């Protein structure tokens, strides 16, 4: 008799099993979880639309935090705010019984600067000119996680399943600025497995070394001496000369850097006015590569070039680490379990209106036409080819602390541009809502697997210890003195928030955010002024 059969037999005979742990979840439990998510589809829509309307950038996600933690607290979760010394960060924890695994559920919540966009139309039109917006879709992941957690929570109560759920937000992910600090401060101590969710146009997951890069974010500040730019420039030492010389030297060095690297910069302070020799200037770099060693080499090269530029210009230079993201490595047993659940859930049932709106975005903005996907993506697997550069996500740091996967759920439109207003156009529409509900179901089923299948937790930890950690060791470019850059975006939001508040979604008065804005879906007629 299997463990599952034995458990069912004991239950049918009236026996009780403290901390019930079947060999796998029963079909009835799976069905209850799926129905629980469906019952919360309206909540998902309201959360997706609300967080879209808040549109808060990194380190300023305070309205989002209060809103989400309020919902979780009403459902019995214990809230702790200010995680790792980051004011807008939080955790929400709920336990049943005294045993069972602890499962972490996370997704990012921050928006992007300058990407305010009216949803539900294909034309570029900001809600508030110059304000942030959800041009990647980070407004949809935490709603999916909340719906998944609340559905699993009910099944744990009904079935007497022991375990702990911990929900947490990715703060300032667009700045790659917090998850390494979460790990350093022990936020994931005691967690047995972690499931992360990220918006996509497809429905998939992967295992093994990721295709993207890790990175370190560093701002170099040069210090010189002011003087009259025309009357006596020889009395000054230009900090801007130091910045420009560093940038020139770095660009010459690119020819001799690995093909896998990506590096880019912006000058954050170029001085005051032309007739004053700049006494201070700063440049902000992202150094990216796919291994810890590669990231560290780029970082040390940047430091050397900065010091050389300072010496050449008679200035001095200081540096500050603003963020870090480890290379990604997803857990194989967890990914295989999650992918089986993605296949069970399947793609959302897109309406003709959904497909028409996706086509409108593509036609209006000159993108290749591609309908919303109707089949799930493939299970991603590693290959022998090194990745040739790409984006980063600091979920990589969590992956080196605990067995972790990312589930990508279908809440956006194919062929839109990432980190662009076109990627915000669908993010408060039925496309985003349906994709988040589908993602919530896959997450909830995978959490149920972990809670009821002890062998899955064991296998995930075995892969983590004996495959992942033998391939690379966690080696972040952070020192004990490095602290989260919580000052970022503070000045911007002090100016923008009053302008944005009139556009916050009111679910008590309007069925959807499109309804509040007067937008007829999918025709895209914007009736507001």
UniProtKB/TrEMBL annotation:
**Could you tell me the Gene Ontology terms of the biological process aspect for this record?**
folic acid catabolic process
Keywords, comma-separated and alphabetical: Hydrolase, Signal
Single annotated GO MF: dipeptidase activity
Entry GO terms, CC:
cytoplasm
Q: Name one Pfam family in it.
A: M20_dimer
| Domain (Peptidase M20 dimerisation): residue spans on this chain | 214-309
Protein name according to UniProt: Amidohydrolase
Name the source organism.
Altericroceibacterium spongiae
What does the organism's lineage look like at the top? Bacteria, Pseudomonadati, Pseudomonadota, Alphaproteobacteria, Sphingomonadales
